[in-house]
């Protein structure tokens, strides 16, 4: 009898584990090139997407990738509704999130309008400017501290094409863009009018910040075991040249 109960208990535990694995949700931005985004065909794409699919292949577990705005993704992850991929570390976030190993280093840069370039070597050079940024994004501790000190103003917009359009029409002084040197053209393709004015956008050569990014879960979800398995997928993907 005890043996039979033990077998039933093992089956029940295994079933719950499998169900848990199938129901893991990871939130992501649909406009965060090259990490997560929707391509020209409207399909999920990006380095983060590649790592998630590789994890699924190695583990046999299913991940529900929920792509929407970064603001929505972050707020849901902050409530413990699922993980979030593409998250950088800050002191405040470390208190509420458990992180994977970094899977990519995002080079965050500044784009300005042609003819309005300015010398940029540090965050101090942004004094007095209006900067277009993404909702709930962090661009490093130095940037966050300068913002809190009101060294500059920010204009918050979700989509990259809106940020660039405001830059084009002199509503802001510069726009913060992830991997702008390589993905600016893809962003401009979202709006035919912007694409015809490609020569009006200039990428400042010095990055604002080099930002290692991760998969993270709210600490209340207790996902350390999942993150350990995900780290193995990251390492394997790097060894196989699947991600930079």
Automatic annotation (TrEMBL):
Every Solute-binding protein family 3/N-terminal domain range: 23-243
Keyword field contains Signal: yes
Signal peptide: 1-21
InterPro entries: Solute-binding_3/MltF_N
Record keywords: Signal
A Pfam family reported for this protein in Swiss-Prot or TrEMBL: SBP_bac_3
Name the UniProt record assigns to this protein: Amino acid ABC transporter substrate-binding protein
Gene3D superfamilies hit by this protein: Periplasmic binding protein-like II
UniProt key word Signal: yes
Species in which this protein is naturally found: Iodobacter violaceini
